[in-house]
Structures are given as C-alpha cells and as structure tokens.
Amino acid sequence: MKKIIIISLAVAMLTGMVQAQKNPRNVIFLIGDGMGLAQVYAGMVSNGNKLQLERFKNIGFSKTYSASNFTTDSGAGGTALACGVKTKNGMIGMTPDSVSVPSILELASRNGLSTGIVVACALTHATPASYIAHQPNRGMYEAIATDYLNTNIDVMIGGGRKHFERRSDERNLTSELRAKNYQVAYTIDEVKNTKAGKLVGLLYEEQNPSVPERGDMLPDATMAAINILDNNKKGFFLMVEGSQIDWACHDNNTEQTVREVLDFDKVLGRVLDYAEKNGNTLVIVTADHETGGMTFPDGDIRNKTLKAEFSTKGHTGTPVPVYAFGPGADKFTGFMENTSFKEKIEKLLKIKK
Ligand code: MG
Ligand code: ZN
After folding, report:
1. Which residues are designated catalytic?
2. Domain boundaries, the chain
3. 190, 224 contact by CB (below 8 A)
4. Ligand nearest to the CA of 77
C-alpha cells in the first residue's frame, strides 16, 4: 500500500513537472522581415551549409495574405503577427475599419510582464510600430513615435531619433520619456551599460545602417534588452526584428541578403543560448512575408556559392517558415494563419485581456 502511495505521489509530481514545463514565462518573438525559406538557405549555403537556425526543431508555415491583398506589406503583416487581425496593407495595429486592437506586447505589459522592442531600423517603421502603435497609415512616423508614450514598454532600441526629437509639433518625446523615468541611450555602449529600469535607445537619426556598417548592434542590443527584462520575475515579452533582410531583397542584392540573414542568425544563436540556460523561455522566429521571390536554379554547396534569381522587386504571397524552441514550441508547427500567434502566446503566458 505504501509503495502504491509513493509511486502515485511520484507520478503526480512528475506530471506536475511536465505540466509546469508546458508554459513559458518569457517569449522572445523574432521577425526576419522578408525572410522566406530561400533567404534562409542563401545564408546557410554561404555560411558553409550551417546556421544557428537549424537548432530549432519545431517548424511550421505562416500564411501571410492581408485583408486587402494577396501579397501583404509590413504594416498589415506586422499587425497580423502582433495584434492577431488581418488588416489592409499600410495600416498599423487596427482592423480594416480602423478599430484599434491591442498587441500581444501591450497585453503582456498590462498583465505585469516586462516588454521590449529591438530592431535594425527606425523604431517608427512598420514592423515595430505594429507592436505599439495604432494608426491608419504606416507613414505617420511622428504619430507612431507618440504612441510609444501611451504604453508602459520597458525597453525600446532602434533608430528613428528624429521622429522623437525633431518633430513638426516641436514636442521633444525624449524629454517626455526621461520624465517618465526612461534612461536614454544614443550609443550601443550606453545601451550595454544599462542593467535595469526603463530604457529607450535611439541609436540613429533615421534608419540604422546596414551590416557590416551596423556591426553587432542587433545581437548586442538584443542581449542587453534580455538582461534588463529578465529582472522581472513575472516574465517578459520581447520582439526583435532583423529589419533589413527585406531591404536587401527589394534591391535583389544576394550578397547583402546573406549578410543581413547571417546578422539575424547571430542574434538567434545568442537568444537560443540564453533560452537553453533559462529553461522558461519560448523563442519564435518567423517573417511577415517573403521579399523578392528569391530562388536558386543552381549553386555549389562546397564552394558556398549560389546562383540566385528574383521574380520581383516587391514582396510575394508565398507562406513563410515558422521556427519555435522551448516550452510551448509544439504549438507552432504545421500550417497556420499569421493571425494565430497572438492568441497562442496569450494562452501560453496566461494573459488576461
Ligand atoms: Mg520591417
Ligand atoms: Zn518590404
């Protein structure tokens, strides 16, 4: 009898442990803008047939069409990922009839989690804007910057300083952020020296430069953000964007696409190292859409070369891969709509609306 009780107790404890592992405390959501399977493979072949990305074992596909177009832009694409609704191309954080929808980042923040955005472009650009702003047009950069002040976001790092400080309405949003207890960093070293509290990193006047000029800005800023957000025992939600894979593909520039993919892959390697050690962190990687219709009629694995062709200077409607690692990663396999991420993450983080 005693044995049975002990065995039952052990089984109950093990079941409890398994269930406890099912829910992550932190979610790191990484978007490679324009990063379809071809972009990933371009990076892989050029890097000696390997990427950090291969450490992800749960893989799926996201359907990226928007409410208005077969082929989405980054506004509607970002809004679907962040807010869980399909909207019209060009819109940010709203339904097609202009009703604001809170993003997963805003909901996480309201539920006491720490939140952050780290991007390789202006903080006011479409993808980061989708997580924080609610505007009918992605080009409304100054209004989008103002939306950052309506939230309780803890860490934001990117470019776009002019939309905060040299505005047509003459408001200085950096001063207003300081008054709300944000530390302000203008260099990556200042970012790296910040260990706690709230931080806005406005590292470039407009867009961030491309790699190699940008150096390790994106991997370094990502790890600095994690280091700050990780102080919250309730957990955190962080969105990171490899913003310029898209731009290189708009230019149909294979070499630059490879450089930006490898920069993003460096971020993934560091984030996975953190997540492996931490054990409570779900890491999700996807794209808002594919850019360029990139394809490879030929190549040479041993010589690390590709013969790349592009079918467009714009985006395409082809579904993009999804990669997940950590507790809850099995929820992100198979084909899914790009609107499905928000609700899945809400459930995993036990977020109340
Ligand atoms: Mg983007
Ligand atoms: Zn684009």
Report:
1. 74
2. 25-349
3. no
4. 1
Residue type present at position 38: A
CA of 12 from ligand 1 middle (Å) equals 46
Which ligand is the nearest neighbour of the Cα of 315?
A: 2
3-state secondary structure of 166: coil
CB 247 within 8 A of CB 314: no
User: What value does the mean pLDDT take over residues 136-157?
Assistant: 98
- Cα 174 to its chain centre, rounded Å, is 24
CB 202, CB 185: distance < 8 Å: yes
- Sorting pLDDT into bands at 50, 70 and 90, what band is 22? confident
Ligand located closest to 120 CA: 1
Measured in Å, residue 303 CA sits from the centre of ligand 1 at: 31
Q: How far is the centre of ligand 2, averaged over its atoms, from the C-alpha of 60 (Å)? A: 22
125 alpha carbon – ligand 1 mean position (Å): 7
Long-range contacts of 143-148 (CB under 8 A, 24+ apart): 144/92, 145/173, 146/171, 146/173, 148/123, 148/173, 148/177, 148/200
Of residues 184 and 1, more confidence is placed in: 184
CA atoms of 305 and 105, how far apart (whole Å): 39
Superfamily for the 25-349 domain: Alkaline Phosphatase, subunit A (3.40.720.10)
